[in-house]
Amino acid sequence: MLVTGVFIVRVYAFEALEPVNPSLQQGLVRQANPGISEKCINGQRLFNTFPSILTLMAASVGCAPPDNIKLNPYVQEGLIEQSHQQDKKAYQSFLTASKEGDLFGTALLGTLYLDGKGVPKNIARAETYFNEVLKSHEAKKAMKDYVEFVSLGGTAGTHSKYGSVILATITARLGLAQIYASTNPKKAFKIYKSTLASMQSHALVLYLLLFVSLPFAGVLYVIFSPLVRRTGLRLKSLHANQFDPYIRELIGFALYKIGMAYKEGRGVKVKLKKATEFLKKAVDFGNDKAIEALRSLQ
């Protein structure tokens, strides 16, 4: 993303590569997501054609089982409109959802202003929307309630009651990282890593909770959660089957961004070995854009 005006823009040159074979792309996606639907695959193709946080979210939600996430009707309508490139209609839908207090609608409004889709591009307004989501009491409370839900016997995964708010939080974080990629690449890199580490730590803790009896679940969460979080990001213990399909999409995107940062020295020193590790893991999560990046490293 290039930001004009008072911001300094750094342009990176890329060596042209032949397009990845479509059948290879489809095979990759199916391998990372067994039983994936055609609707989900089509959503991912949309993201590869028009890469942005917004199309990523449209693709991600398209991969979600209908009974596993509850979206505001206007948000759902807006994502459908966006998938048909009806950006002005999507803007009105997300705006209505946001006015109703829906945080996911607010986060998606930010992505429209970030990309200049349906509205004039406005980075400052996009940042305002993203920060509004992250500072919300509802967003902070959602993960706490979600953990309590699982500790009382709920199923691991983004439960419908909390899924929309959790998606809003992740969308806002990734949106801010995309803003800072041009103005403060070091901060962008930290956001990508912290978001990824946070999602991984919760997945590992919740995985532990599934194997203990209810009376001890809450106690073990208190014990293990800080320990897991302090270990930071560990690629070897990050597996696609730990996450719901739409969260896999987001993680694959973050892994790709981190890998590219190591590859091109964006906010961090160039480390080709690290770049290869993150890009390979992004491929495991079904991110086919990482294939081309890996090919240029070979």
Automatic annotation (TrEMBL):
Its EC number is 3.5.2.6. The keyword Transmembrane applies. Keywords: Antibiotic resistance, Disulfide bond, Membrane, Transmembrane, Transmembrane helix. GO terms for molecular function: beta-lactamase activity. The keyword Membrane applies. GO terms for biological process: response to antibiotic. It is an enzyme of class 3 (hydrolase). SUPFAM superfamilies: HCP-like. The chain crosses the membrane at residues 204-224. Pfam families: Sel1. It catalyses: a beta-lactam + H2O = a substituted beta-amino acid. This is beta-lactamase. The lineage of its organism: Bacteria, Pseudomonadati, Campylobacterota, Epsilonproteobacteria, Campylobacterales.
